[in-house]
Design brief:
mainly alpha; Methane Monooxygenase Hydroxylase, Chain G, domain 1; 6 helices; NDAH_ubi_oxred_su3_sf; NADH dehydrogenase (quinone) (non-electrogenic) activity; transport; quinone; transmembrane
Length: about 160
């Protein structure tokens, strides 16, 4: 079985798919393009793919190691709710007030919007006045939204 690699990602030659030729296929994928002398798109993302692969392998190894090394003897005492050494005073499944959810949702919304400030701060020198004014408009909308939520009483606990 042979696979034709596109010229954009390598040489455009047929590469046999077997265990001996995988290295040659990877070289063809990550080699410089002779015409434009640029790296193909896959080569630019290769460090990210390596990082993700290592993270997955380490995660699986840690979970598997703790599962294999841990003592697997559950009993009712270990599975019960622990509350300062006493038996639980009441049922642990009770309703939470909606205000907790409201504050959590507002935190997530404003926290994600503030995350847009980091790329802006890094590239502020290249954006010029247009980038500065657009971010000031964004921060104005963010501030107006925060003041609106505050006046509506979304952050009050009474």
């Amino acid at each position: 079985m042979a696979v034709l690699l596109p010229a954009r990602y390598g040489s455009g030659l047929r590469v046999a798919v077997c265990s001996r030729c995988i290295a040659h296929a990877l070289v063809a994928l990550f080699a410089l393009d002779n015409e434009t002398m640029t790296q193909p798109l896959l080569a630019e993302y290769f460090p990210i793919l390596v990082f993700l692969a290592i993270a997955v392998v380490i995660s699986i190894a840690m979970v598997g190691g703790s599962f294999l090394a841990g003592h697997q003897k559950p009993d009712p005492e270990k599975l019960s709710t622990y509350e300062c050494g006493f038996e639980p005073f009441e049922d642990t499944r009770h309703r939470f007030d909606v205000r907790f959810y409201l504050v959590a949702i507002l935190f997530i919304i404003f926290d994600l919007e503030v995350a847009f400030l980091f790329p802006w701060a890094i590239s502020l020198g290249t954006l010029g006045w247009v980038g500065f004014l657009s971010m000031m408009g964004f921060l104005t909308v963010l501030t107006v939204g925060f003041v609106y939520e505050w006046r509506k009483g979304a952050l009050d606990w009474e």
